[in-house]
Amino acid sequence: MIKVSFNARAYVLKNGQLMIRVRWNSKKNEVAFSVGYTIDPTKWDSTKQLVKANSTHRINGKTVYAREINNTIRTVLGCIEEVFTEYSLRNEIPGNADLKELVNEKLGRNKPKVVENDKEKTLKDIFKEFLSTRALEGNWSKEAEYKYEQMWQQLTSCDEAIELDALDKNKMIQLTNWYIDNDYCNRTIVKQFRILKSFLRWISKNGYVIQPGVLEFKPKLKVIPKVVTFLKYKELMHFFEYEFPKEKEYLSKARDMFCFMAFTSLRYSDLAKLRPSNVIDGYLDFCTEKTDDKLRIALNEHAQKIIDKYAWYKGDTVFPVPSNQKLNDYLKEAAKLAGLDRKITQVYFKGNTRHEDTYKFWEQISCHDARRTFVCCSLALGIPPSVVMSCTGHSDYESMKPYIEVADETQRMEMDKWNTHQYKSRIIEELDKMDSEQLKKLFEYVKEIA
Prior knowledge:
49% of the residues lie in helices and 14% in strands. The protein is α+β, with helices and mostly antiparallel strands.
């Protein structure tokens, strides 16, 4: 077996098109492969030769996430390596045309994947293929797989004999009406259609024929954005300092877990796996479970107090964190006892019918409200969005927007600067006129009244 020395490098052209250049045989041979995406060049990490982690891209009118693009880059690189390995085993060196043909064949680009036997595949067979292939390629969590399984159940509940050639624009309208008849809110219906079309786009890329108008179909439904729930700063500090009865110590622990997430922006998945080795010199240094982002978050004194409080715990993790479901249940009980009963109204539509649900905050509190609380309180305190994003792992403001609700408190704090500025500026003017003795007396007076 001979070792074929080659070099493969991913790069982005000035027009944003992603390419992979392969050189081998003392750089005498060179082939370039298009990755199939056009991105914003500012979102390219030339050192890692990947799209910047957690960035989003608008491609052909849809949002594409960094993970999807990077997985494609890795897939192309893997196919290139496979071809060179196969040639090495035969003591041969590929030519330009050979490499291009074989790599494209492995990527399924040379010919449609649909062969004679595949034409007999049912839509159910194709869905199973999609689920196994995409779950493996995207390293999906169980939650991600469940979303597609749920979509499939709904589609087959609408038409249990559904096949690809029958999935046309009229069927999409029929599916819309099925959702409405089964009491789904419009917001959920729109979300489920996005999931369905993600499946259908994969079908189209793999050589199957999608009926005209299906991928462009949008249900004509009125959708009102969901109210983002979070604790305002005063509510958060009240919750943090609230004394629970000794017999309800489990509520105190649940509150501490929520507040730690609210002070650091951690998700539940990262809190549950946080290890002592991740706490370094006043920082949290870790890789996120959901997105594999490397984050370094400075601990404020409130977060540090919680860590110190649980110094007694000698497990593998920093905190004794209960399951997600138990923690959410305990949080509702803790928030009710602490009086977090601010009313929240959610307005939504089911078909053409408007609905309003009003509830108290404690009735709906969950772990994820802590992350939103971190974002909103940080902005309310005047922390720049760029700093907030460096803690949450969001790569741009647009991707952070779903977590942001500009609270009344934020506006009050900002607008109050009009009131306080006149006093601050006059105080500074008078301080500049004072001598050291006058400043000393003023300092002693301030200490007494503080």
